[in-house]
Amino acid sequence: xxxxxxxTLAQIRGSKSRFxxxxxxxxxxxxxxxxxxxxxxxxMDAMRRGAIAELGDYHWQGSGSAASAQAFENSGLFAxxxxxxxxxxxxxxxxxxxxxxxxxxxxxxxxxxxxVEGKLPDAPGEAAVTKDLATVEHLAPGSALTLTxxxxxxxxELTVTAVLDRFAVDNTFVYDGRQPVYLYLGxxxxxxxxxxAGSLYFWGAAAHPDSRFFASVQALExxxxxxxxxxxxxxxxxxxxxxxxxxxxxxxxxxxxxNWLRAFLLALIGVGAALMVSNAFSLSLAERRRTxxxxxxxxxxxxxxSDVILLEALFAGLIGIPAGLLFxxxxxxxxxxxxxxAFGLLTRRYGLGDLNLYLVVRPFWLVISAAAxxxxxxxxxxxxxxxxxRTTPIDAIRxxxxxxxxxxxxxxxRLFGKxxxxxxxxxxxxxxRSIHRYRATLLSMTLSxxxxxxxxxxxLYLERSYAMAHPxxxxxxxxxxxxxxTTEDGGAYPLRQILQSPANARTVREQEYIQWGMLTLPSSxxxxxxxxxxxxxxxxxxxxxxxxxxxWAQAGPDSDTLAMQPYLLVLPDEDYAxxxxxxxxxxxxxxxxxxxxxxxxxxxxxxxxxxxRQMALRPGDTMEWSFNAMPVTxxxxxxxxxPPQNLIQTWRNPYTxxxxxxxxxxxxxxARFTAETGSYCPRYFNFYYQSDDPARLYAELxxxxxxxxxxxxxxxxxxxxxxxxxxxxxxLLVRVILYGFVALISLICAANIANTVSSGMALRRRETAMxxxxxxxxxxxxxxxxxxxxxYSIQALAIGLPVSALLxxxxxxxxxxxxxxxxxxxxxAMAAAAVxxxxxxxxxxxxxxxxxxxxxxxxxxxxxx
Amino acid sequence: xxxxxxxxxxxxxxxxxxYGAGPNTVAALDHVSLTVQRGEFVSIVGPxxxxxxxxxxxxxGVDRPTSGRxxxxxxxxxxxxxxxxxxxxxxxxxxxxxxYNLIPVLTVAENLTLPLLLDHRRPDAGQxxxxxxxxxxxxRLDALPGQLSGGQQQRVSIGRALLTRPALVLxxxxxxxxxxxxxxxxxxxLKKFHAKYSQTLILIxxxxxxxxxxxRILSLEDxxxVKDEVVRP
Lengths: 865, 233
Known about the structure:
The complex is a heterodimer of chains A (865) and B (233). Chain A folds into three domains: 1-48 and 254-402, no CATH class; 57-235, no CATH class; 477-719, no CATH class. Helices cover 53% and strands 18% of the residues of chain A. In chain A, strands 1, 2, 3, 4, 5, 6, 7, 8, 9, 10 and 11 form an eleven-stranded mixed β-sheet that branches. The two termini of chain A are 34 Å apart. Chain B has a single domain, classed as P-loop containing nucleotide triphosphate hydrolases (Rossmann fold, 3-Layer(aba) Sandwich). Helix content of chain B is 32%, strand content 28%. In chain B, the strands form two sheets. Chain B has a six-stranded mixed β-sheet, with helices on both faces. A four-stranded antiparallel β-sheet of chain B has the order 2-1-4-5, with helices on one face. In chain B, helix 7 links the parallel strand 7 (168-172) and strand 8. The longest helix of chain B has 18 residues, at 180-197. Chain A binds chain B through residues 403, 405, 407, 410-411, 417, 421-422, 425-426, 429-430, 433, 766-767, 769-780, 857-859, 861-862, 864-865, and chain B through 53-54, 57, 60, 62-64, 82-83, 86-91, 95, 97-99, 101-107, 110, 114-115, 117-120, 144, 146-147, 160, 172.
């Protein structure tokens, strides 16, 4: 071991705590780099598996003649090659209708065929059937299956060898509602295919899916297309994208986004980590200035002096990088464990199948992570190492570079002096001795605060928005039915009866509403703000004054009347009477109603707002309702400025008015309409269910759609609980990812601050001793150290919280465009940010405070002199 | 000498300070006793390692003796805990060092008023200006220490020690880092303040000429006072 190595090790032993903090910094940096790279790769791997399950494990697909397929197969470009075509056979006259597919080569494997029973066909005369067909036809491995051959009029005898699930070959072929039967296809030689076989499709998995492969495929295709006009081909862009490969036909935008995101995160982490590690080495350099001066006077070259710093970086890297990689793997595995259900739920919801998210550790990415971390470490140590090389004996004697003071930065501190006394002023000035280090740490800390609060705000607003979409939340499944008559309209009556009492619902609430025709009323009866918003709505939606079929004012601003769209809720008679204070008239010509005079609409600034006193209607006012060709008069029985929450609606168009009437009154109008016109007006029903088993209820209700294909009747079912679970999954994903990021940045900040304060203390021993000699009490010293550390938190909070509040407001504006809810700040997250930031400061100051307690200032004064 | 000169401001009794342990034990101070009257100007001389600086640190309350007593203005320092000792120092002791020991992040004005600031007292602007005028640094109050010459920095250091009118001013080789011209100016300044404010001044020096400016000279060797002579009664 040479003398420089010995010297470096000795100095590391002399400042163990600083070295430990440096190693922690390197480890955290390596962990973050590895987390980004391995995390991205793991998610991409999950998506890749999803793409394989959904589409198949192939890179390229073609269709064309058997000769073209054979040319591709024999080109040597593919590691696996498979093919399939429709065959002309059909079922026996007494059997279930089937579509027959010939599948050969590696197509079974590439397209994900999996035998639930038996083994996949691998010889002529063998076939596989779907589970559904096997159930209907009572087939099992070993069963005989006879199909007719329309071409020859004869029949084909087959042996079933496998029962299987539908697989990705079905993405290519259409069966017209018939069950497929998959036959073994041994060869694609034209003369060996049965007469009447359909177009041939083929799939290939590249031996090396790279640009040369793509170029070769394209060249071959061009050559073959001269003799095969039907030749066509596609790339499996989805799979290639998730493999990180750009195909010539697309997927580059998603791949670019992923690469950009990965590069952005790496750059962010790299810069943060470099600042932290560089800070540590700058402090190391400052500590060693005298030693370096001595080395210089003894004849050490600049390179030898630089080596002292670089050797420390090497030792820190040898410990920190492997530790960081291990930490990243452990952290990611735990994080994925937490995220797995949410990730699976989301991928199922978006039709990507049930993707199992788990950590994938490929040596390539481990090596890249280690190399990136080592690069960050080397770059961080480089400048301090160069400075070490330039240290002269005079620098060391005079200590000229021990403290780099920026006069401008050191002028401040008066406010802190007023707030926290002289210790505050000293702390503030000490913290800003190196303005670059100060700003870098402050920026990281502010970023943590902003991320934490904004992520919490986003999650909070998402949940609030969803809660507003379903006020009351006394249901977990909803269904909506539209029909023309509940008594005469085909299956509407039995369907409504089922919807009123499904087997799996505990409680049911039915709500009918009518949204048809237009109301005409005096324009003076529209609220001032409503009129204002209505014109804005018209402008925003490009509606001219002469556009007749609109839901806004049909007349111009000078007209005395205008048209509005009614939304008439039909309440049970007793509920209506309670709301209106009287029963409704029910003569079929005049309907008594209550004006629900409050709603949510888009405001002038684009966000949703609560519109109070939407209308200036008074009890006794009347409005003409063009109920198709049959006029009906709506008479205002009462105006409810503060209606029950579940009656308040959200409208895009402020000229939509919510009204409520009684069942008897509404039915009288429906009866009159049918009597006078001989037809029915549309009826809308919403059903709100509370179920102990929402999934089963959802399945029960959705099956009604399939069982009751009734004309003029539509049924939509919403799984509120499923939606809620998805919202929770999204917010959980956002929270875990962003909070994890915040935790890592905070850890770097804490290590950075602790390093700065502790090492600053070590470098300022004489100053501190002088302060003590001039009467700074031990408590005052602790206060100064805590404030020196806390200044980062105080400033980060002072900047970060208002910025977060502003960002939260922007997030709120975006989210509440879906459903209105009042703006509120995520106070809990803000308090957590404040407590966390101050906690980090206290922890970061602790080593320096303990050191100060252990070493009395007089000792430093004596040593310094 | 003023009327109060007969009162002892400093009493040192049987003071010992031992560093190290076992065979490496070094006695920096070996049963030192002395008394200094209020308003006296005392020089302490002696070779390197004789215990001058150790004695000064213990007198100033920045170091604790191994045994013995130090009483400053009637207060025995060993009875004070760290906090009360710090408060005592900021109010009763003024320290001047060879290497100035100014706080580089504070301006000249802030360095001058540091003991007052630490005592949460508002400095009297007039007093600060007057003192700066006397020190010859009136135009540099907003400068940082790094922007001053060595002589100017030492003037600030002296000003800091004198601003609170402490009972005792202790100067540890205040000219050791200065050229002859600046050294003479600093000594003149110390003498001037001693005369003007009747403050008790104890000064450590290697320079016999500077030592002779005092009224009394104490000579230390191997941690003991070997000579105590009054040169200017």
